[in-house]
Amino acid sequence: MGEQTPVLEMTGIRKVFPGVVALDGVDFRLFPGEIHALMGENGAGKSTLIKVLTGVYEIDGGEIKLGGEPVRISGPLQAQQAGVSTVYQEVNLCTNLSVAENIFIGREPRRFGRIQWGQMRRRAGELLARLDLDLDVSAPLNTYSLAIQQMVAIARAVDVSARVLILDEPTSSLDASEVAQLFAVMRRLKADGVAILFVSHFLDQIYEVSDRLTVLRNGQLIGEYRTEELPQVQLVEKMIGKELAALEDLEGKAQRSREKSAEAEPILEARGLGRTGAIAPYDLTIHAGEVVGLAGLLGSGRTEMARLLFGADRADTGELRLGGKPVTLRDPQLAMKKGIAFSSENRRTEGIIGELSVRENIILALQASRGWTRPIPRRRQDEIVDKYIKALQIRPADPERPVRNLSGGNQQKVLLARWLITEPKLLIIDEPTRGIDVGAKAEIQRLVAELSDGGMAVLFVSAELEEVLRLSHKIEVLRDRRLIEELENTAEVDADRIMQTIASGATS
Amino acid sequence: MTILKNRLFWPAAILVVLLVINAFTSNQFITVRDGHLFGTLIDILRGSAPLMLVALGMTLVIATGGIDLSVGSVMAISGAVACLLISDLGNQNSVGSVLLIIGVAIAMSLLLGLWNGALVAVAGIQPIIATLILMVAGRGLAQLITDGQIINVRSDPYSTMASGFLLAVPVAFLIAAAAVALTVVLTRRTALGLLLESVGGSPSASRLAGIRARRITVMVYVVAGGFAGLAGLIYSANIRSADSISAGNLIELDAILAVVIGGTALIGGRFSIAGTVLGAILIQTLSVTVVAIGVPSKATLLFKAVVVVALCLSQSPTFRTKVFGRLKARPAVRAEVPA
Predict the structure, then answer these.
(1) CA atoms of A223 and A27, how far apart (whole Å)
(2) A90-126 residue pLDDT tens
(3) Which of residues 316-355 of A touch B (CB under 8 A)?
(4) Do domains A8-240 and A243-339+425-508 have the same CATH topology?
(5) Residue-range domain boundaries for chain B
(6) What pTM was estimated for this model as a whole?
(7) Do B207 and A344 touch (CB under 8 A)?
(8) Does the domain formed by A8-240 have CATH 3.40.50.300?
(9) Is the pLDDT of residue A249 over 70?
């Protein structure tokens, strides 16, 4: 494969969004007839890279060559014309139309303006036969399973332009036999010389089907490897990464002492708590002043586990006790009243309210718990907000600025402030440091440590293992939507130990 | 320069232009006659009251990301209920009875709003569909109440709502002004405004911040229903009858327009009550002006449309940068190129 010329070559790709560098000098190449996996945790830049390639975003720097020719991809249509097709996680087809119509929609074979239905059906049949699929092409697409729909989408994509095919998490809603079927189709296309870019969070699938892989982390290229030459543990390590030197002042706190928390009363006990399709039933106990870290790869169920404890999603099995008393968390407000706070990983869609000001965003949760009839007096709002802008060093220190104009790190601090003023007993923070700069990251970590020293319990969810190790007293390791191990964060526990657990899936 | 950038600058400017036109064309723009104010300006203020009331409620609904198409039908129902009850009175001029009947009609409107709110927030039906139901069925209901007839009333206390004066100012305008004041107090003196904007800005983030959006959503539809009912009373008091076909016909569109002109985005979030008031007065002024300057009645709708298009273009950032940006930005563009 080495002598071939790549069909796609991206060099020094740079993409900047306000407040964050999403891609920083990333190289990526794709050869004809290979399946290439793009790996990285959330925020690593995978989806940005794909969006650059499909023309959703324009690059701020670097060069894209297709078949040796430099190209400028300025929109999805240009991408398609240049030979790049994408099949997304959610099938983008009209399921009420027939299989043949879906394959040829917008480019139906015509004669004198009339659609040649016979020819269309015949060609659709031929196309699908190439993928070893035998379908009734005049049946509506929704009579077939999701996997078949996905393959119809692939058939369409390949027929439109067959050079580069991007499959963005195609397997996330398929079962094992459907995945096998999809892989058979992928291998057949590969044999036909199509270059396939494959994104999946399932490591086993990567190892089963891909020839090479490229790892990204924090918008930077970590490396390109032949899949067979890179053991799983090393891959996990490259994806999760070692920490940056700027955070070292917290190192002294590593393996933090827990004399205090050992005697404390448990403030939260979950027994067999679970939700079908989201997270298998798990047990969890959190004490006051304790930091519990959730570790695992993306899609391992970290977030799903945390959401049940806030009533953001409702558990359908198991029981939850808060302060010794059983409760059913029907909605977030109830959890708030019980002293739980939850900051979502989706800062933009589930965290900040972009057009409201910093002040309004900060007081929102406290105001919600008071109800609309008891507004927080403006003077008190200003006091609280000023105090937290100073304490958390929110920049710019302008309480009336719309929060969407702040950088990611400062938005995160606004969210922390929103929850801290409700004085929670348990603070659940999901990926508070994702996509923010190193300085803000260190400040947030320091804050978590201080809060815990002050007696607050913290459930800390992060894709970055070093961060979890540094802050947590206790680490819960997840894989494939299941809690597989609970570790006391003692001196023997390190990143390698946890990665082993994640990679092997072993339960001890 | 900053005043030019204010979203309300162009609507306000157009309003001023229209008022100036009126001041020149009408022989009595504003005078005092029989001890109260009189003239075109007063007609505009009085005539804009129903639209202002409807648009106020619409502002709150739109702030949550919803829409209420049923306001015209609610107007028809409330007018029908009031006129039917008043026409049955032995003495139609009894102030107490009329007040009681007004109360009944408004309670009825609040109930209709509750129905809308329940469909949207509890049953989870899209607002445009949920309120479409009452928009269509409500007019039928109004016709049932009036038995398909136009019910005429001869009640002076009732007529006062539309054509009376208090301290030289039209009562209808005072009612609308009181409603504006009530809405401002309700939204800005409590936390309701903030929670509304939050729900409209991002429902999922609001839920995770512990806001119970359902209650708030129901409440805005109830308020919108109540204001629409009040508007229906003023409308029917003005014509001294219940006309269930034309009462509030297409007013939902004027109200939506007033809200949008006032700077509240249809996707929800931030809302401006002052903007809506300006928008409602502007639309009413436009209707009056069309008549005043003698646009042939066949062309009035077209004329209004042209003004509205101009207004919307003046508020569109894309359009503004395309037209005004090109005129003055030539040198500025050159400076940006190296970056």
Answers:
(1) 9
(2) 667 888 888 888 888 877 888 888 888 888 889 888 8
(3) 331-333, 335-336, 342, 344, 349-355
(4) yes
(5) 2-321
(6) 0.71
(7) no
(8) yes
(9) no
